[in-house]
Structure formats: C-alpha cells, structure tokens
Amino acid sequence: MSGPITGRAWVFGDDVDTDQLAPGLYMKGGVEAMAAHCLESANPDFARQVSAGDIVVAGDNFGMGSSREQAAMALNALGVGAVVARSFARIFYRNAVNLALPVLVCPDAGRIAAGDRLTLDPAAGTIRNETQGIELACEPLPDHLMALIADGGLIPHLKKKLAARAG
2 falls in which pLDDT band (50, 70, 90)? Predict the structure, then answer.
C-alpha cells in the first residue's frame, strides 16, 4: 500500500465481532465462503455490494470475540481498503496489520455516514470526508507498521528483511 486510500464508507455500530466478519458456519468453506457472508448479520448486502477500496467504519471494540485471523482475511478478500473505528479489539487490530489491512483509530468515526466518500492517509492520520467536506484526525500508523503493510503483511515483510540480511 502506498498513498491515500479512497472509497465509499460502510458504517457499522459498536462491538462488531469476529463471527460477524467471518461466520463460523462457513469456516470449512475457506476464506471465500466466509467473505461471501461477511457482515451479513449487520448488513445483508455488504458482501455483494462492497467495492474494492471501500472503507468499513465502526464504533467501539471492532473485531471483538475470538482471535480468528479469518475476520481480517474476509475483509481483504472482499477488497476492503481499510477499517476505521473508534476502537479495536487488540487481537483484531494486530491480525489486520499482519495481513496488510490498514486499521485507523478515529475518535470521530461516528461523524462518518454510510456512503460518504472518504480519502484516508494512514501515515498522516487523516481522513478527508469528501462528501461532507470535513477532515477528521485519527491515530497515524507508525512507519514500521506502514512498511509492514506496504510489503503485503507480516510474512512477506519478514521474508524481505531476511533476504536483505542474507544478500
């Protein structure tokens, strides 16, 4: 990932759990099956209508529940560009970063409406709401996490570092 992330906002509430993101009922079907049912309990149209680069926006405690990394994988499989929330469950936050899904803590996430056009700059910690003409501050992602995300996640990042040391 390099540069800003631009997409349409999909807004959800507080306490979105990992079973809503990656329903356990579809675990045996793999990531694609889980992605096809991602967030359907909150918005039945989400998985069918989300477009590459769109941004999931939520309230507090996004990604609570189990430690299943498939929750972030399902969002990646759908092409979600980033997740913005007032707060995240720690394990989801780390899983998302490890899988190269940008996650931004934004105290004012509640000011974003469904369908708003957003431009995020994770390194600067800014969200430009093009629809409302406002800018919101969020916690910037530090350089080392931006590098990890840019490399495609934790495993590709580590492989790159190890190759540089060996070469």
Answer: low
In the chain the domains, ranked by start, together with CATH numbers, are: 5-166 (3.20.19.10)
Lowest mean pLDDT among 25-39, 93-107, 110-124, 149-163: 25-39
Question: What HEC string does 5-61 produce?
Answer: EEEEEEECCCCCEHHHHCCHHHHHHHHHHHHHCCCCCCCCCHHHHCCCCCEEEECCC
Residue with tokens 């056009």: 117
Q: Tell which residue, 37, 61, 41, 45, has the closest CA to residue 10.
A: 45
User: How confident is the prediction for the chain on average, in pLDDT?
Assistant: 95
Q: Which residue has the tokens 């096809």?
A: 36
Handedness of CA 151, 120, 19, 89 (dihedral sign): positive
pLDDT of residue 60: 98
